[in-house]
Design brief:
By secondary structure, the chain is an alpha/beta fold. It has one domain: Molybdenum Cofactor Biosythetic Enzyme, Chain A, CATH 3.40.980. It contains six helices and ten strands. The strands form three sheets. Strands 2-1-3-8-7-6 form a six-stranded mixed beta sheet, sandwiched between helices. A two-stranded antiparallel ribbon has the order 4-5. A hairpin with a 5-residue loop joins β9 and β10. The longest helix has 14 residues. The chain starts with 5 loop residues before the first strand and ends with a helix.
Length: 208
């Protein structure tokens, strides 16, 4: 597969379009991608509207090698990311019984019965790879489509662990040039080449 050169980030959720919520997720993801030599071409914030999300995803897939969507993987009707990606990539959704079991066990530890609606979080686009999420019920998903990859990450407080555990280090394996950055005394970032092994390790340590 060809190396990643350009990425796009879509933050999903109507709450991200209110004055009380700041999209810090994209900033963190951008930093991690820059560390492994991937340029972020553009970012978008999209509300919980299927039509708007479809337009944003189509545009991104036409322009970049790696698309990262953060949010919209919950169990409710307005959590649309998983379904939109599956439809646009023409990948039927199939329930992963192991995910359902993990979600059910998570509720059981709290002496609760899992609502059936949470089974939606166990639906995986055909061919997608599950990224376990021990901090919540929504796993991440790595979906390859030819030379392109779509990485789906859950919302705040969960996605950083999920992305660090597999998604971002896996992206590091698809880069041809590794670049790291560090702050200098004047606050500016100084870029320098660094080995693949260091880049992968730096992503893990700064995300966990």
């Amino acid at each position: 597969m060809r190396p990643f050169h350009r990425a796009a980030i879509i933050a999903v959720g109507s709450e991200m379009l209110t004055p009380s919520k700041v999209d810090t997720n994209s900033l963190f993801i951008t930093e991690q991608l820059n560390l492994i030599g991937i340029q972020v071409a553009f970012k978008s914030v999209v509300g919980d509207d299927r039509g708007d999300l479809e337009i944003a995803v189509r545009e991104a897939l036409a322009r970049v090698d790696l698309l990262i969507c953060c949010g919209g993987l919950g169990p409710t009707d307005d959590d649309l990311t998983r379904n939109v990606i599956a439809d646009l990539l023409r990948r039927p959704l199939v329930e992963d019984a192991s995910i359902t079991a993990r979600i059910r066990e998570r509720f059981s530890r709290r002496n609760l019965e899992m609502p059936e609606i949470n089974r939606r979080q166990a639906m995986v686009p055909t061919g997608g790879r599950v990224i376990p999420n021990p901090n919540g019920t929504a796993p991440g998903l790595w979906i390859e489509d030819g030379d392109r990859v779509v990485l789906l990450l859950p919302g705040p407080a969960e996605w950083r662990w999920c992305g660090a555990s597999s998604g971002l280090p896996d992206a590091a394996n698809r880069t041809s040039t590794k670049r790291c950055s560090r702050s200098t005394r004047n606050g500016r970032a100084r870029r320098f080449r660094c080995p693949r092994r260091f880049s992968r390790r730096s992503v893990k340590s700064s995300c966990i």
